[in-house]
């Protein structure tokens, strides 16, 4: 077989006749038998993929004195002809409609490569339907040129390259060095495709890694040294950042079950001048020392299943970041984690958590969910409920420190509380949620085992009485407690400022204001002197400005019964101060034909009405408030302006009748107001007069 690479030398004279005979026969064979075996390209390519038109003409071996067939067309479609006609055929039919990618041209192919269904129209139509392109990356056959361009773009967006189809390991020269937070790691060109590479590295998860680092830095300030585990190392970027910045405060263990990933983790440790300590089974062979002796930090690298390494050893900090769901590793994580330790997990199965695959969520998390306006918070509470049940099976309770749900992942960070009493308290916070499908009002089911005759009475709305049939659905079980710990988030923000983590700082500020349920203008990043000693889980934990009077609780010391009783009393006393569950989307509840106020102004209006209010990171247009939905709509309607009255002055719009903000407004009254507005719209002749009468104008004052 003759190579199609441009750099291939011309064959010797005694082999020309044999090569020409082979080339005349092979174009009529199947495309799967005609491949390029050039050594400088990492995988085999079809003959329709060439760099230059001259390479395509070399396949035909154009000679003026002989008739030659087209190498990309069957004999039934294009008969053998002389060189001048074959040159025009290759240029106009194959080369001009080719698709270019990284210097290669994927020409259109008419061979019998692509299986075509039998057609009664005849052989001529069948040959026309057989035209297709061969993908240079995955060898797929695509019919349309536009589809081929989109197919290649999807490969590029996923970071897929031809190197992932090579059967041999790529040389070190093909590695890409990525730098993040002063840490260098080597990655393969296809590092962002977890199914096709051994060293998965996602640049979009940088924010996730920064949040986890801040949580670990806060724990390292409480007690040191702490043993931390990155159960799914991949490239080892996360564990390297821990060891490089926190130094002697942490003892880092990076684990991965893939041998190629473990090899790359060791190379990345050497790249960052770290010592590598092998696991207990390999310690007899000695230690591998990185380049340079100025850095004495040591990272332990293990090659085990994540469940095995968590069963064998105890850790203070465990991070789980598998591909997809992490429920398969929760039992092992809580089995040996130390008291007052931290377990963080990142779930990337957003299709099931965001209610796109509800049957998968029921199978993995044992939770019934539907697509709602607050689906991201619903996903976070479903994950925490699974974490709570796993911890309770090990006689351990949890305190949620952080719950973040963004576009690509759901991150949950919890503190472990050892003992059956905290386990019982945490298990009681897993409840079902009653969700109204008409107005999207929601409320957690009351605690108790007695069956209620009419569960619709728990909902604040009266949709069940005014609408036919069943109007609500039961979701869950979900976590009904708080999603944030304000003191822990403030210390995470201090760590983010100290280490210069710019991407995490805006999100942490939003989380602190959301945890306190206050507007951002009332938020202060600097804690006063009396807040230097934060109380969490019934114990006092030292912060960077802690006075000498505060003390430190060791990880292995069991809490006394008096402390536990004090914790329960404090939690009951501060239950009313927790942030309200869930949020409302201002666009979802907007009034048709009305201009909504700006979001920040609307937050001030709700705050002036006497409600707690804040923005939420789950939804950029979401409002977290303890106001019921009827009052939320009432305030929104009052400060909205009609779009069809050009001469009306800006200002609040008063509702008809005696309805005022702060009063309990029935849902039927809101419906009547909306029906009245629709009736006014139908009367085109007196619309302006009716609107002026229903909505008196006022001067807009600040």
Automatic annotation (TrEMBL):
Gene3D superfamilies: N2,N2-dimethylguanosine tRNA methyltransferase, C-terminal domain, Vaccinia Virus protein VP39
Cellular compartment(s): Nucleus, Nucleolus
GO-annotated cellular components: nucleolus
Signal peptide residues on this chain, from the entry's feature table: none
Composition bias, Basic and acidic residues: 1-31
Chain intervals for the UniProt region annotation (Disordered): 1-41
Keywords in alphabetical order: Isopeptide bond, Metal-binding, Methyltransferase, Nucleus, Phosphoprotein, RNA-binding, S-adenosyl-L-methionine, Transferase, tRNA processing, tRNA-binding, Ubl conjugation, Zinc, Zinc-finger
Pfam (any one): TRM
Gene Ontology BP, a term: tRNA N2-guanine methylation
GO molecular function, one term: tRNA binding
Catalytic activity: guanosine(27) in tRNA(Tyr) + 2 S-adenosyl-L-methionine = N(2)-dimethylguanosine(27) in tRNA(Tyr) + 2 S-adenosyl-L-homocysteine + 2 H(+)
Segments forming domain C2H2-type: 135-155
PROSITE patterns attached to this UniProt entry: SAM_MT_TRM1, ZINC_FINGER_C2H2_1
InterPro entries: SAM-dependent_MTases_sf (IPR029063), Trm1 (IPR002905), tRNA_met_Trm1_C (IPR042296), Znf_C2H2_type (IPR013087)
PANTHER family xrefs: N 2 ,N 2 -DIMETHYLGUANOSINE TRNA METHYLTRANSFERASE, TRMT1-LIKE PROTEIN
Family that this chain belongs to: Belongs to the class I-like SAM-binding methyltransferase superfamily. Trm1 family.
Protein name (Swiss-Prot/TrEMBL): tRNA (guanine(27)-N(2))-dimethyltransferase
Native source organism of the sequence: Melospiza melodia
């Amino acid at each position: 077989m003759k190579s199609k690479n441009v750099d291939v030398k011309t064959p010797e004279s005694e082999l020309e006749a044999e090569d020409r005979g082979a080339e005349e026969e092979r174009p009529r064979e199947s495309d799967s038998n005609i491949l390029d075996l050039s050594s400088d390209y990492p995988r085999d390519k079809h003959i329709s993929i060439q760099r230059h038109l001259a390479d395509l003409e070399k396949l035909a071996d154009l000679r003026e004195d002989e008739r030659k067939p087209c190498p990309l067309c069957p004999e039934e479609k294009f008969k053998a002809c002389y060189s001048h006609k074959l040159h025009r055929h290759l240029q106009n039919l194959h080369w001009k409609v080719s698709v270019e990618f990284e210097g290669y041209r994927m020409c259109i192919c008419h061979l019998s490569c692509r299986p075509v269904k039998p057609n009664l129209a005849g052989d001529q139509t069948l040959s026309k339907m057989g035209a297709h392109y061969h993908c240079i990356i995955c060898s797929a056959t695509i019919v349309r040129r536009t589809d081929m361009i989109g197919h290649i773009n999807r490969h590029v967006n996923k970071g897929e390259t031809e190197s992932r189809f090579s059967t041999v390991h790529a040389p070190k020269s093909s590695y890409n060095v990525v730098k993040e937070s002063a840490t260098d790691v080597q990655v393969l060109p296809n590092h962002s495709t977890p199914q096709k590479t051994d060293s998965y590295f996602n640049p979009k998860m940088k924010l996730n890694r920064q949040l986890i680092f801040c949580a670990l830095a806060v724990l390292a300030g409480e007690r040191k040294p702490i043993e931390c585990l990155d159960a799914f190392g991949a490239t080892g970027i996360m564990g390297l950042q821990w060891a490089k910045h926190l130094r002697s405060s942490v003892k880092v263990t990076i684990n991965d079950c893939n041998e190629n990933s473990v090899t790359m983790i060791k190379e990345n440790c050497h790249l960052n001048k770290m010592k590598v300590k092998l696991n207990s089974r390999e310690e007899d062979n000695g230690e591998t020392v990185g380049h340079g002796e100025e850095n004495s930090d040591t990272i332990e690298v293990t090659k085990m299943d994540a469940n095995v390494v968590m069963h064998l050893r105890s850790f203070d900090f465990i991070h789980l970041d598998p591909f997809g769901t992490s429920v398969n590793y929760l039992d092992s994580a809580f089995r040996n984690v130390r008291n007052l330790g931290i377990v963080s997990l990142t779930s990337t199965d957003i299709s099931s958590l965001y209610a796109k695959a509800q049957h998968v969520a029921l199978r993995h998390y044992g939770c019934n969910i539907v697509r709602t306006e607050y689906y991201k918070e619903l996903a976070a509470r479903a994950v925490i409920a699974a974490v709570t049940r796993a911890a309770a099976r090990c006689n351990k309770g949890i305190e949620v420190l952080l719950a973040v749900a963004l576009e690509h992942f759901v991150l949950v960070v919890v503190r472990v509380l050892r003992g059956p009493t905290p386990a019982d308290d945490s298990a009681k916070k897993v409840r079902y949620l009653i969700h109204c499908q008409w107005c999207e009002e929601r409320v957690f089911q009351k605690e108790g085992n007695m069956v209620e005759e009419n569960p619709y009475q728990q909902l604040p709305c009266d949709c069940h009485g005014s609408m036919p049939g069943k109007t609500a659905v039961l979701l869950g079980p979900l976590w009904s407690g708080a999603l944030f710990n304000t003191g822990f988030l403030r210390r995470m923000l201090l760590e983010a400022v100290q280490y210069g983590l710019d991407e995490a700082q805006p999100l942490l500020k939003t989380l602190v204001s959301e945890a306190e349920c206050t507007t951002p203008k009332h938020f202060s990043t600097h804690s006063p002197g009396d807040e230097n000693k934060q109380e969490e889980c019934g114990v006092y934990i030292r912060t960077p400005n802690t006075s000498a009077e505060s003390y430190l609780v060791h990880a292995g010391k069991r809490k006394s019964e008096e402390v536990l009783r004090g914790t329960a009393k404090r939690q009951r006393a501060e239950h009313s101060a927790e942030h309200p569950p869930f949020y409302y989307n201002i666009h979802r509840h907007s009034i048709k034909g009305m201009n909504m106020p700006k979001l920040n102004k609307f937050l001030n209006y709700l705050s002036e009405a006497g409600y707690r209010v804040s923005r939420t990171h789950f939804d950029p247009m979401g409002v977290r408030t303890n106001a019921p939905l009827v009052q939320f709509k009432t305030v929104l309607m009052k400060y909205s302006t009609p779009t069809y009255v050009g001469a009306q002055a800006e200002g609040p719009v008063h509702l008809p009748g005696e309805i005022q903000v702060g009063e309990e407004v029935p849902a039927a009254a809101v419906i009547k107001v909306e029906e009245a507005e629709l009736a006014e719209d139908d009367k085109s002749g007196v619309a302006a007069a009716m609107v002026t009468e229903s909505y008196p104008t006022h001067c807009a004052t600040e």
